[in-house]
Specification:
The protein is an alpha+beta fold. It contains 4 helices and 12 strands. The strands form 4 sheets. Strands 5-6-7-12-9-10 form a 6-stranded antiparallel β-sheet, with helices on one face. It has a two-stranded parallel sheet with strand order 1-3. A two-stranded parallel ribbon has the order 2-4. Strand 5 and strand 6 form a beta hairpin. It is globular and about 60 Å long. The chain starts with 6 loop residues before the first helix and ends with a strand. The relative contact order is 0.15.
């Protein structure tokens, strides 16, 4: 039941990239590893990515031909794969070579920053998973300005919330699967 949540400790323990080949599949077969919802699989992808991991996709919807995409390929029927393309576009905005979990994280969020130290303070990506805060407070460098975006990871929207510096309070929509992207201007 845990997979992406363990990426941070695996990275620390083994000091190697963490590739998540099987974090369960969106589908409807009888086995628990192949019948999670699209929302749960997308949540696992965001969690893994922000912790510095590399998740893989599979789908296990049973169709009248008895074929599973997971083993035969073909047409995808689920809801998650489109959202992975959206996540990829967000990840491409990361400066440098990738993400790592930041020490700025509170217990109820995942916060990432660029892997390369030279980009510290330039970019943050927060994810709130199944939590649904109506606001969050952030503390950034008072000398710099940051573009802040609210991301709905399920609806695949990215909305500019404004330009901020120092301490500020950001209103959020109080629903699950939200993220916040902060980019130094």
């Amino acid at each position: 039941y845990k997979s992406s949540e363990l990426v941070s400790s695996w990275r620390e323990q083994y000091r190697k990239p963490v590739v998540l080949d099987e974090i369960c599949y969106e589908g409807d077969i009888q086995h628990g590893w192949g019948n999670i919802s699209g929302e749960e699989l997308v949540r696992r992808f965001w969690e893994a990515s922000l912790r510095g991991g590399y998740p893989g996709h599979g789908e296990t919807y049973l169709h009248h031909h008895g074929l599973l995409w997971w083993s035969h390929g073909g047409k995808l029927y689920g809801d998650s794969y489109l959202r992975f393309a959206f996540l990829l576009n967000i990840l491409k905005q990361t400066p440098g070579i990738g993400l790592k979990q930041s020490g700025r994280c509170a217990w109820d969020e995942v916060c990432a920053e660029p892997e390369e130290e030279r980009y510290n303070g330039h970019y943050y990506l927060y994810y709130y998973s199944f939590m649904q805060p109506s606001f969050r407070e952030y503390r950034l460098n008072e000398e710099e300005q940051y573009d802040v975006y609210v991301i709905d990871t399920w609806q695949m929207t990215r909305t500019h919330a404004g330009v901020f510096s120092g301490a500020f309070r950001l209103t959020l929509p109080a629903k699950p699967y939200m993220a916040v992207q902060i980019i130094k201007v």
